[in-house]
Amino acid sequence: MAEMDTSSGGGHKKGPGVKKSKKLSTRVDLTPMVDLGFLLITFFVFTTTMSQSTAMKMNEPKDDDSTQQIKVKNSGAMTILLGKGDQVYYYYGQLDPEKLSEQFKSTTFKQVRDIIVEKKKATPIDDLMYIIKSDKQSTFKNAIDILDEMSICAVPPGHYAEVDITPTEELLISKTEEANGIK
Amino acid sequence: MPKVKIPRKSTTIDMTAMCDVAFLLLSFFILATKQKPPEVLSVTPPASVSSKAAPDKSILITMTKDGKAFLMLGDETKKAEILSNINATKGLNLSSTELKKWEKAPFVGLPLNQIKSSLQTAVEIPANKLPGIPVDSTNNEMIDWLKSVTNVYAGTDQRKLQEMLLVKGDQSTLYPVFKNIKKAFKKNEIYKFRIVTNGEAVPVGSELYLNPPKAD
Questions:
Q1: Where would I find the H helices in chain B?
Q2: Interface residue A66 vs chain B (CB under 8 A)
Q3: d(CA A49, nearest CA chain B) in Å
Q4: Interface contact B12-A1, CB threshold 8 A
Q5: What pTM does this model have?
Q6: What ipTM was estimated for this complex?
Q7: Is A38 in the B-facing interface, judged by CB distances under 8 Å?
Q8: What are the pLDDT digits (tens) for B137-182?
Q9: CB contact at 8 A, B63 and B173
Q10: Domains identified in chain A and CATH numbers
Q11: Chain A: nearest CA to B133, how far in angstroms?
C-alpha cells in the first residue's frame, strides 16, 4: 500500500531534454510495523508472570515429651488425612474400630473447605481442633494447600496442628485408595 | 436532480502516532518486566493466600520434584562464615583455596563427603545431575547445615534469621522430604520459618475474604 506521489508532474514542463525525476514520497506504510508492535506487546503481556512469590509463615510446635501435649476433646476434633492423588480423608473425634466405614470419609480439596467451615460453625471455638496428617504418598502441595485452607477458613492458630500419621490410618488410607481405585 | 458528488477520501490513515504508542507500550513492558535470576533448579511452588513477599536475601532450601534438597546461602556477608563453619565442625579438610572456590558456587547440592572431591575436579556437574543434600531419616545432613547456620547467626537478631529461612518445594515433592526438612529445623530449635509460595487471591466469600486480618 506504499503510496507514491505521482501528482507532481502538474503544469510546468521543464523542456524537452530534462528528464522528469519522479518525486518519491517519504511516507511509508506503517501498518506492518504497528502489527508487529502490538504482536510483541501481547506477547510480553501474556508472558509476564504477575505473581510474585510470597512467603508463608510456618510455626512448628516444639517436640516436647508428652507432658506438654494438649488434650483435645473428641467432640471438637476433626482429623484430616492427606493421601495420594490429591485425595483428602477425614473423620471426627477418635477412630472407633467398630464403625470405621461410617467414620472414615473421603473427599477432595474442592470440597474440604465446606467441611472445615461446617465443623467450625458446629463446634464451640475453644473445643475446635483440626488435626492434619499427611500420608507418605501425599505431596508438598497437599500439605501447603491444607494449611492454606486453614487460613482461608480463618481457623485461629493453635486450633490446627500437623501430627504424624499412625500405622492404622495409613492402612485405612491404602485400603480406601484400593477400593476407590486411586493410583 | 443534480447529482451530489461525494468527494472520495483516501482510506489510508497516518499510522505514525499509533506506531509510536505501540512501541512506547512495548518498551515499557520490556523494561518493567522484572528479569528473574536464572534458576538452575526449576521448581513450581504451590499457591497460598499469603500476601507477604518473599525476601530476596535468604537462606533457601529447595526441594525438587524428585525429592532432592539443595541449599542456597543468599546472605553473601555470612556465606563464607557458614561454609568455613561446616568445614570445621564436620571435618571436611578443605584448604583455604578450596573454600574460596566453594564460595563461588551458587548452591550446595552434594553430600558432605563428596564436597572435597568435587572441588578438586575442574568439571562442573550440571544442576540436574547433582545428588542433592541427603535428607533421609537416617542420614539428614540438613541438620548439620542448619546447625552451622545457627552457629554463625548466633548473637544476631533471631527474628531476622527466621525471616530469612525459606523452604521452597515443588508441588509434586513427596511429603516425607518436607517432613525431614522440618525435622532438621526442629533439631536446631528453629520453630519458625517460611515457605515460598505463589501468591493467590483469597477466594471470594470465604471467611478470610470477609474478615481480612489486620496487617501486623
A1: 16-32, 76-89, 96-104, 115-120, 141-153, 158-164, 175-187, 207-210
A2: no
A3: 9
A4: yes
A5: 0.74
A6: 0.74
A7: yes
A8: 888 888 888 888 888 888 787 778 888 888 888 888 888 888 888 8
A9: yes
A10: 73-180 (3.30.420.270)
A11: 18
